[in-house]
Design a protein that fits this description.
Blueprint: E1 4-9, E2 20-21, E3 24-27, E4 31-32, H1 45-50, E5 60-64, H2 66-72, E6 87-90, E7 102-105, E8 108-115, H3 121-125, H4 129-133, E9 134-136, E10 142-144, E11 148-154, E12 156-158, E13 164-167
Parallel strand pairs: 5-6
Antiparallel strand pairs: 1-2, 1-6, 3-4, 3-12, 5-11, 7-8, 7-13, 8-11, 9-10
Length: 179
C-alpha cells in the first residue's frame, strides 16, 4: 500500500478536534495557515505556561488512520481530525520514523521532530481513550501512539490523496521522543 494523506484538518480556535478541510496550506517555519498552533514559538497552552519563548516543534501534527481501526476494536469511534491532528495518513509507520525524517506531501516538506504527548483531553473526548493511545510495552517502556509532530521546512498545499514520500536522515537514527 502506498503512503498517502487521507484527511487534512485545521482550526483557528483552541478546541480538541479540528474540522476536515479540502486542503491546508503549510507555511515554512510556522505550520498550518490559520491554525491555532501555527507559529515560530510554542502554542500548546501548557507549554506556553512553562516557557512561551521555546521553539515550536509541534507546528504540524500527523496521525496514522490505522490507529482509528485499532481503538475501534475496543469500542471507540474516532474519525480524522477528532484527535486534533492536522494530517491523517495511511500506509506509513509514522511512529517508527526516526527524528529528522523528511516527509514530502503535496507541495510541502515536513521534518519530523518527535512524538505527540497525549493528555487527559483525550479522555474528555471519549472516556478511556487515553489508555488506548498511551500504554506500556512488554519491557515496561512507555508507548505513545497518538501521532507525531513536525515542523514545516518547505511550505505548500496538502490535500487528501496526496502521496507521502519519506527521506530518512543520515545514520545513526535517533528514535522519536516526546516533544
Amino acid at each position: 500500500m502506498n503512503a498517502h494523506v487521507t484527511a487534512v484538518s485545521s482550526n483557528g480556535e483552541y478546541s480538541f478536534t479540528k474540522p476536515n478541510r479540502e486542503s491546508i496550506t503549510l507555511l515554512t517555519g510556522l505550520g498550518v495557515e490559520g491554525d491555532v498552533h501555527a507559529g515560530v514559538t510554542v502554542k500548546h497552552r501548557s507549554r506556553v505556561a512553562q516557557d512561551p519563548t521555546q521553539p515550536n516543534l509541534r507546528q504540524v501534527h500527523l496521525m496514522h488512520e490505522e490507529l482509528f481501526a485499532e481503538v475501534g476494536e475496543d469500542g471507540f469511534e474516532v474519525a480524522p481530525g477528532e484527535l486534533g491532528e492536522n494530517i491523517t495518513t495511511r500506509g506509513i509507520d509514522l511512529l517508527g520514523l526516526p527524528t529528522g525524517t523528511l516527509l514530502r506531501l503535496g507541495d510541502a516538506v515536513l521534518e519530523v521532530t518527535g512524538l505527540r504527548n497525549p493528555c487527559v483531553q483525550i479522555d474528555h473526548f471519549q472516556d478511556g481513550l487515553l489508555k488506548q493511545v498511551v500504554g506500556r510495552d512488554e519491557a515496561g517502556n512507555l508507548v505513545r501512539k497518538a501521532g507525531i509532530m513536525s515542523v514545516v521546512r518547505e511550505g505548500g498545499v496538502v490535500r487528501p490523496g496526496d502521496p507521502i514520500e519519506v527521506e530518512l536522515p543520515s545514520e545513526p537514527h535517533r528514535p522519536l521522543e516526546r516533544v
